[in-house]
Amino acid sequence: MSGAPVVVVGAGPVGLTAALLLARRGVPVVVLERHDRPYGSPRAVHLDDEALRALADAGVVDDFLRVSRPAAGLRLLDARASVLAEFGRDARAGLHGWPQASMFHQPDLDELLHAAVAREPLVRVETGAEVTGLVPDGDGVTVRVADRSVPASAVLGCDGANSTVRRLVGARMRNLGRPARWLVADLRSDEPLPVWPGVHQVCDPRRAATFMPVAGDRYRFEARLAPGECAADLPLARLLAPFAADRAEVVRTAEYVYRAQVADRWRAGRVLLAGDAAHLTPPFIGQGLGLGLRDVHQLTWKLAAVVTGRADDALLDTHQAERAPHARALVRLAVLVGALMAGGGRGADGVRHAVLAAVDRVPAVAAFATDSRTPPLRRGALVERSGRAGRRLAGALLPRAQVVVDGRRSPVDEVLGPGTASLSRDGGGLVVHAGGRRTPVADVDGVLAAWLGGARSVVVRPDRIVRSAE
Fold first, then answer.
1. What are the C-alpha distances in Å from 68 to residues 192, 304, 341?
2. With contact defined as beta carbons under 8 Å apart, do 43 and 182 qualify?
3. pLDDT value at 442 more than 70
4. Residue 201, number of CB atoms within 10 A of its CB
């Protein structure tokens, strides 16, 4: 449907980030949100530095850093709150120039994304707009909203776990693990609580729980509910006492069902799924929102190329081919980590105590436990994992390292530009080929040269994923 906007269904963080990414590529967007106002309650609390690449390209990462804080790492505790193992994180910037893990209060992220969208003339948000139908229409889609129709060049379903878009295209969720009910309590304290500033995971098969400082004066406590148990049954103050949080203000409590699921179909013509509409994960590795941001970061440049006529619709086939295996890998990892942390009975608890106490003293294992890198994308139409360099680098994110060009320091992303580019060794230095220009760059801290290793060059996609290396 030539000239029609892309319709994004859902005005959560994934949908609004998608809208900003599309607008930055010159694509008009209409965001349809069935609720009249933002949800207002916290849900996600963690993002890693890979996911922040999406916020950076959307133009809001600096705002995010002002409302978040670096996470100190992970402590594993037994049922008596004694430390089994501690995996600390370096507070300094990681490979991409930001903390490897950031904690935040989701309403703060929602607010800054809504403010950014309000400043973007190519994006219009309509609230109280519930989608009731999707009808293919030539090279676009007609979106039915109550008693009217909205023409769209494409539709992106970012409408959450109970996605209407997913239902309308006939996609179904496939289980990768058993669901589990958890109590979630959000807390505030005027005085900082005297607690270690990282995530505490209670590895107790009888009462698995998590406690974490979030940002500012906010904290989060979660506890697994037994079959037939409800949130009101839990002695919350007693459960909070080991973290000195029993006198904190309880802002809200809620019951959540954590699921491990991935949709069997992510695309129907020009209707595509992203975020919780496409996958749901347990919280153990903190990848719920991060997966959704990766989805739209790796999709929107393709979608922009298709709706502006610069690429064939077949490019959209790569969305599920790339993102679904990556999502399945991380969802399965979250299921496994949850089982290792809090599965089994008393016998498993004793073995876990002994193993974790030993693991804590092995530096390589501790580094792995805090590494924010996720698996590279599989080999496919846009990932050429051939040769030694290709097998090592293709499908992974290029580091967002600092470089100097003509005396000015900036992230390498700014030199790469919005399209496909290449980074190559040139004598003792590096050079970027992008947009028909050859730009020598000085590798400020040697990050890029070290990352390249023995590779001579890499081709980098618009989402900063390495397409090929040699």
1. 16, 30, 26
2. no
3. yes
4. 23
Compute the average pLDDT of residues 324-353: 77
Question: What's the pLDDT score for residue 250?
Answer: 96
Q: What is the CA radius of gyration of the chain?
A: 23
Q: Is pLDDT at 362 greater than 80 in this prediction?
A: no
Order the strands of the 148-152 sheet from edge to edge: 131-137, 140-145, 148-152
CA–CA separation, 221 and 208 (whole Å): 11
Residue 87's nearest CA partner among 193, 196, 215 is 196
Nearest by Cα to 395 from 346, 336, 323: 323
In the block, which residue shows the tokens 């390209």?
A: 57
User: For 195-337, where are the E strands, in sequence order?
Assistant: 199-202, 209-213, 218-224, 249-258, 261-263, 267-268, 271-273, 279-280
Cβ-Cβ contacts under 8 Å for 139 (sequence gap 6 or more): 1, 2, 153, 270, 313
Residue range 351-362: mean pLDDT, rounded: 53
For residues 33 and 11, the answer to whether their CB atoms sit within 8 Å is yes
- Bridge partner residues of 264 (DSSP): none
328 φ, ψ (degrees, to nearest 5): -60, -40
Mean pLDDT of 432-446: 95
Give the mean model confidence (pLDDT) for residues 444-449. Answer: 93
341 near 61, Cβ under 8 Å? Answer: no
Report the share of the chain in percent with pLDDT over 70. Answer: 93
Q: Helix (H, G, I), strand (E, B), or coil: what is residue 369?
A: helix
State the average pLDDT over residues 96-107. 93
Cα–Cα–Cα angle for 167, 173, 178, rounded to 5 degrees = 140
User: Which residue is it, tokens 């929102």?
Assistant: 289
Please tell me the distance from the alpha carbon of residue 236 to that of residue 244, in angstroms, as a whole number: 12
89 vs 300, residue with greater confidence: 300
DSSP string computed for 44-104: --EEETTTHHHHHHTT-HHHHHHHEEE--EEEEE-TT--EEEEEE--SS--TTSS-SEEEE
Name the token pair of 28: 């008009």
Q: Summarize pLDDT for 372-383 with one digit per residue, the tens.
A: 788 999 999 999
